[in-house]
Amino acid sequence: MLFVLLTISLGVTHAQEKFEKEYRIKTEEVPVKALKFVTQLGFTKKVKWYREEGLTQTSIEAKSKKNREKYSIEFDELGTIEDIEKKIAWSSIPLSTRNNIRSYFDTAHQKICIQKIQIQYTGVIK
User: Fold this and answer.
1) Which of 33, 35, 46, 108 is most buried (most C-beta within 10 Å)?
2) How far is the C-alpha of 61 from the C-alpha of 77, rounded, in Å?
């Protein structure tokens, strides 16, 4: 399944708060299953590992670059993959889709600023 995620700064604040704490961890703290998966991807830059703690869930995240593109791969605590996110440029989205996104936010909000766009790959990998 493929999603395009937009990180947006809205002129209007919402009542929803999200609690997450993210901090670096050593490779030795990473589940073997996650480490094997990321090693097979052949990143050209160093992989940085993080533990992300939320109110109800803890995950392990690998961040790196390949071909000048930023990737974030999230795993559960056992090393099972949850999702992969790849940062993309606004200009890489088809013009008609960009126009639809702009139109939606123009009618739904007074002021927005798109800060980051990602493609998110989710689903079960067998």
Assistant:
1) 35
2) 10
